[in-house]
Design a protein that fits this description.
Helix content: under 10%
Largest sheet: 7 strands, mixed
Structural class: mainly beta
Order of helices and strands: HEEEEEEEEEEEH
Shape: elongated
Radius of gyration: 16 Å
Number of strands: 11
């Protein structure tokens, strides 16, 4: 079992398709869109997410937005309550914003003025008060330069 867990993280952990088992009434499904984005520097990226599950209104949970850059461990960028309030932010507000609608259980992560350091895999994680985590499959963001930029 230890070997299997180690191989999981060595091979990329969450970006390789960490998924939660869906089917139980107490489970939460986290869906993100799109799964892949390719942009040029300076553009704006929007990642949308939605939560599905029975009795979400009666559950106590928080929503986290994570980044995993190539060759690095995941970092939690922001954590919000199920009401949509910011609980924790690992960055200065401005370029990255997160919104969440508690009624529709949908949200948007917006990254403005994309830079090359934004190239990474992004995930939404939801944790219940019982400590169980549920993960999205994630979004891979690639930053590419236009040919005209490369010819300068």
């Amino acid at each position: 079992m230890l070997l299997m867990v180690s191989v999981f993280f060595l091979m990329g952990g969450m970006s390789m398709g960490l998924a939660q088992k869906i089917g139980s009434e107490s489970e939460i499904q986290v869906i993100t869109s799109p799964t892949f984005i390719q942009v040029e520097p300076g553009q704006t990226v929007r990642i949308t997410f939605s939560l599905r599950g029975n009795d979400l209104d009666s559950k106590s949970y928080v929503i986290s937005f994570w980044i995993r850059r190539p060759g690095q461990r995941p970092i939690e960028l922001v954590c919000i309550s199920k009401e949509g309030g910011i609980l924790f932010r690992h960055f200065s507000a401005g370029r990255i914003t997160v919104s969440y609608n508690k009624y529709s259980k949908t949200g948007t992560v917006t990254i403005r003025n994309v830079i090359s350091e934004d190239e990474a895999d992004y995930f939404i994680g939801v944790t219940e008060s019982a400590g169980r985590w549920y993960w999205s499959y994630g979004t891979q963001l690639t930053v590419s330069y236009p040919w005209s930029y490369l010819l300068k």
